[in-house]
Design a protein that fits this description.
Strand order of the largest sheet: 1-2-5-3-4
CATH class of the largest domain: Alpha Beta
CATH architecture of the largest domain: 2-Layer Sandwich
Number of helices: 6
Oligomer: single chain
Helix content: 40-55%
Shape: elongated
Strand content: 15-25%
CATH topology of the largest domain: 60s Ribosomal Protein L30, Chain: A
């Protein structure tokens, strides 16, 4: 074999040096790209964590502001003593006496109730929480073809309010109708006045 000459040795060293330089450059680029990707992933992760915590579902205004708005609506509609609102462990409860919304023994909404319910729907749409509509009755039994018992009457009343809210643009996925008959009275069923308190619809804004 012919021994390598001096020029050949220098060419080999130059080629080797170029290869090492290229490899080092390649690794630098790979590391830099990895760092950029990690940064992007961290931003994506932060956005997802914020979304999971509810960062993208920030209400347009607070629950206390909603309570004050409902109180103003009650005054505007001159329904003091017929409608009340308060903060509960679950969120907000709006209590409406049955006579405000329905005739006795009926589940058809009164036209006079439309303005109040329309205003309420507008406020509830601005908040991202679930809404539970509960129908309640007194302990006097009802036996009609449509309503064999207070269970059917209370459920139908809750459903009527829910349907109205859907028509006003509240997503149906956020709504539920619950009939509770006479199982959760506000007052003892011992007088006409107390029974009137128990015939009611409760709109629960569930924040938990």
């Amino acid at each position: 074999m012919k021994p390598m000459q001096g020029d050949d040795r220098e060419d080999w060293q130059l080629s080797y040096g170029d290869m090492v330089t290229l490899l080092l450059t390649f690794f630098v680029v790979v590391v830099a790209m990895s760092q950029v990707n990690l940064g992007v992933l961290e931003e994506i992760g932060a956005s997802m964590r914020q979304a999971i915590r509810g960062g993208e579902l920030r209400p347009r205004y607070s629950l206390s502001e909603l309570v004050e708005d409902v109180k103003r609506m009650i005054e505007e509609e001159e329904l003091q003593g017929q409608v009340d609102v308060g903060i509960t462990p679950q969120g907000i409860a709006i209590n409406l006496k049955g006579a405000v919304l329905f005739d006795l023994g009926s589940a058809e909404l009164k036209p006079q109730a439309f303005p109040l319910l329309t205003k309420l729907a507008g406020k509830l749409k601005a908040l991202p929480y679930r809404v539970s509509v509960e129908g309640h009755t007194d302990d006097l039994p009802i036996h009609t073809q449509r309503f064999p018992s207070n269970w059917e009457l209370s459920a139908a009343r809750a459903a009527s309010v829910v349907r109205f809210f859907i028509q006003q643009g509240i997503p149906k996925e956020r709504l539920q109708a619950v009939g509770l008959a006479d199982t959760q009275p506000r007052a003892p069923n011992t007088s006409p006045e107390d029974r009137a308190k128990n015939r009611r619809v409760v709109i629960q804004l569930l924040t938990l």
